[in-house]
């Protein structure tokens, strides 16, 4: 991340160095949610299930066991 921020910052005179951090936060959250779902955690309610499905994080709406 540091190298990416330094590279982007070099082209934008330091003003764009925060952009990779913002992008990485969204990517990391997606990875973390998928990891939790693989461990057996379930979405809290139907609205959350639909949102995860719409964003492509889960492929099909899973029902509680």
Strand content: under 5%
Distance between the termini: 39 Å
The biggest beta sheet, please? none
Strand-pairing-aware structural class: mainly alpha
Radius of gyration: 17 Å
Q: Low-confidence parts lasting 5 or more residues at pLDDT below 50?
A: none
The count of DSSP E runs of length 2 or more, i.e. the number of strands, is 0
Number of helices: 3
Shape field:
elongated
Whole-number mean pLDDT: 86
Descriptors:
3 helices; 65 residues; mainly alpha
Structural features, described:
This protein is mainly α and 65 residues long. The protein has a domain of 44 residues. It is 60% helix and 0% strand. It is built from three helices and no strands. The longest helix is centred in the middle third of the chain and has 20 residues. The chain is elongated. The termini are far apart.
Mind sketching the topology for me?
Elements: H1 2-11, H2 19-38, H3 46-54
Give the structure's gist in a few sentences.
The chain is 60% helix and 0% strand.
């Amino acid at each position: 991340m540091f190298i990416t921020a330094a590279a982007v910052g070099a082209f934008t005179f330091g003003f764009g160095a925060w952009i990779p951090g913002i992008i990485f936060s969204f990517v990391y959250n997606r990875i973390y949610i998928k990891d939790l779902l693989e461990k057996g955690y379930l979405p809290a309610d139907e609205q959350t299930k639909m949102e995860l499905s719409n964003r492509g994080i889960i492929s099909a709406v899973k029902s509680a066991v």
